[in-house]
Amino acid sequence: MVLIEYPEYLIHRQWMSHALELAKAAGDAGEVPVGAAIADSRGNLIAEGENRKERDKDPTAHAEIIAIRSATKTLDSWRLHEYTLYVTLEPCPMCAGAIVQARLGMLVYGVDDTKTGAIRTVINIPDSSASNHRLRVVGGVLESACRQQLQTWFATKRHQKTNGQR
C-alpha cells in the first residue's frame, strides 16, 4: 500500500463515491455491485463501467474491463499510464492482468477481495515477475461503504433465493 497526502485522499474519496454509484446501478440491475471510473490528473472523468456479466452474457464484462475499453477508445490509445482507475472491489486476476497490460498509472480500490483479489489479497499480479509494469496501488478507500454495499447485496440475494424469488 502507498501512503498518500490528505488532499489526494479527498480526491480518491470523491472518485470512489462515483464508483459506488455505478456499483449501485449494477446491483439494481441484478449484477454483483462493482463500479469503476478512470480519471485523469486534472480531475476529469475519462471512462466508467459497472459489472455487466449477466446483462451482456459475457464473462469478461467486469466493471474494470468495461472502463478500460471505454478509456482506450476515448483516448485512442491502449496506454493509460497517466490515468487512475477507481474500483469498489479489489480486481480479480483477469482485471489485474488488463490493468497491467493497459499500463495504468494508479489503481485505487475500496475493499479487499478475499476470494479472488489479485492485487494484494490472494495473489499479487502487479508486483510479480510476470508483470512488465509497476503499478501504484492505494487500497481501502471508502472501504466500509464498499464492503457494506457488497454484503447487503449478497444478503438480499440469499434471502430472495431462500424465499423462492429471483
TrEMBL record:
Cofactor: Zn(2+)
PROSITE patterns xrefs: CYT_DCMP_DEAMINASES_1, CYT_DCMP_DEAMINASES_2
Top-level lineage group: Bacteria
Gene3D superfamilies noted in UniProt: Cytidine Deaminase, domain 2 (3.40.140.10)
Domain CMP/dCMP-type deaminase residue range list: 10-122
Annotated GO MF terms: tRNA-specific adenosine-34 deaminase activity; zinc ion binding
Enzymatic reactions: adenosine(34) in tRNA + H2O + H(+) = inosine(34) in tRNA + NH4(+)
Active site: residue positions: E64
Keyword tags: Hydrolase, Metal-binding, tRNA processing, Zinc
Residues that bind Zn(2+): H62, C92, C95
Cofactor-binding details, from the entry: Binds 1 zinc ion per subunit.
Enzyme Commission code: 3.5.4.33
EC category: hydrolase
Function noted in UniProt: Catalyzes the deamination of adenosine to inosine at the wobble position 34 of tRNA(Arg2).
Quaternary structure, from the entry: Homodimer.
Family as reported in the entry's similarity comment: Belongs to the cytidine and deoxycytidylate deaminase family. ADAT2 subfamily.
HAMAP family (UniProt xref): tRNA_aden_deaminase
Protein name according to UniProt: tRNA-specific adenosine deaminase
Source organism of the structure: Halotia branconii CENA392
